[in-house]
Amino acid sequence: MADDSLRPPFQNALLRGGLAAQRVRRAWWMAAPMLLVLAAVGAWPLLRTIWFSLTDSELSNLGDYAFIGLENYVGEYGLLASAEWWQAVGNTLLFTGLSVTLETLLGLAVALLLNQASRLRTLLRAALLVPWAIPTVVSAKMWSWMLHDQFGIVNHHLLALGLIAAPLAWTADPQLSLFSIVLVDVWKATPYMALLILAALQMVPEDCYEAARVDGVPRWQVFRRITLPLILPGLLVAMVFRTLDALRVFDLIYVMTSNSRDTQSMSVFVREQLIDFGLVGYGSAAATCLFFMIALLSIIAMGLMRRTFERAAA
Amino acid sequence: MSRIELRGISKRFGDTPVLNDIDLSIAPGEFCVFVGPSGCGKSTLLRLLAGLEDPSAGEIEIDGVRVNQLPPAQRNVAMVFQSYALYPHMSVFQNMAFGLQHRKLPAGEIERRIADAVRILQLDGLLQRRPKELSGGQRQRVAIARAIVRQPKVFLFDEPLSNLDAALRVQTRLEIASLHRALGSASMVYVTHDQVEAMTLADRIVLLQPLAGRSDGLSVAQAGAPLALYHHPANRFVAAFIGSPAMNFVDATVASLGDGRVLVDAHGMRCAAQLSPQGLAVGEPVTLGIRPEHVRLGEGAQRARVSHVERLGEVSHIYLELPGVGTPLLAKSARDDIAIDERLAFDLPAQALHLFRADGVAQARGTARQSGSGC
Questions:
Q1: Domain assignment of residue B44, given as a range
Q2: What is the ipTM of this complex?
Q3: Whole-model pTM?
């Protein structure tokens, strides 16, 4: 401590051994309220859900249930034997893969454009945030109307331009509905990706670009060999965030296509089982599976990111 | 071999003039140093040569070809940046190779050039390291090596030593000088704010002065050999900038004009300066200048009180209080026995005196070369 020298020497000697311990104790006290809140809103509901997933509990009579072990998971009618569950898993993974890929590519393109110094940049940066700032339910509803098969503006213009011969059922046609949902998610989340990538781009030292310019390195090489490696850590963080977000997708899909099997995500499946069908035990099993999948992916992603960061730092 | 010609170069950023009306010719193989205080536009001038900035007016020619429209890559220049600008994620080898890989060089050429640069700059054993794992001096050498492997016609250095500590700066200065000798034919343009670097490295110094927002000022205060700037400063700005400690300036008026002599009156002290009287009128206000190392102590007719002494070991700085003059006269002396408050005889030799007119322009030195007491 800064005022150590002001204390009599004997007192200093007494304190020195205890200082580190004191600091640790203080840190725990500071962290305690947060830990309590986390336990109350995170750990406890999670443990309850896992417990419920091992029972035959139903919404209509929550107090009366029996322990049935892993029946909800591996039983004859268990989750792992359910084609609907696996379709929801497939839908979620497809949605995540498509939307994160598109958002990354588009976000990178937008960020590269915004990284050029210009008077418009500040304005564009603010305008860019609008889709991200609109509540998902609102933007999902807005897009539902725009994509409406009879009255939607999208069909109207595509017909007028002669690009399609008959109106498309964007959200009802099983061939199109997941694509429409991805489209809306890309519209909404690209700005978020763009801003995160822009932040990474602005960390790249300007003089590296100037050195490459003087050396006459072609633009594509500069991007591939300088820009990309230097923004990679930031890019990965942004992608991981978006992936974890996308795996939990609920509101967008629920508003646009409700419980349709063709687009149902894992979260939508969980809600359907828990609320619509009242199967608390079974729904909890699905929720638990979803949780462990995301947890596993997070751990893998964190491991990968640490490797990348260490390589970048080395 | 390449000659660089600048004609009427001006540069403004928005409404702020940075460089004005620069005419300059850099001979093939010449080591030319742009020096000046901060804000004089020396780095901007270098960036104009590199093609990283566009001039607002004027022409740049390299080897007789107008390069105004050419991107940096086609000017055949290599630049060493103040911050080194090494690619942080690449090894030393990759840093050097990166600028060559897109050129269609014969097989093995890149390796050969890098091996040469490694030998010249003693980078053995560092090739696989990342910039982060290098010391400041090593990074600087890698940055120079990266410029060498390009085999450019012109090397551009932007304050390459300013991030190094004092000892390393001296060492790297020597390395750059011997590099210039070794490479022979390549011209080097070097930007620094440090007059010692400028004096020691340059074949020719271009001393730039800040325009301070005026668009009618001239950017080049003086261009010439280092000793020409030292002995024959063209104006008061050059006289004050070159030399350390800086030249003493004393206000004076012209008392009389002779043949190759000007007699001035400086607060009652009458001094004869061995300068051309041309253009001067009796009674005209002028500024008398003399370098601290030219003030002779312990001789001459003048007397002054010693107000302060700084002993540096090899020399001492003696501050003399002149009656009626605000700032003391600084003298450099090998003597270390001078004490504060001592009354000391001193002399300002006639051939070491400079005179500056009210507009700062220096009075030309006369042809007659005889030594003698000035005051």
A1: 4-240
A2: 0.83
A3: 0.81
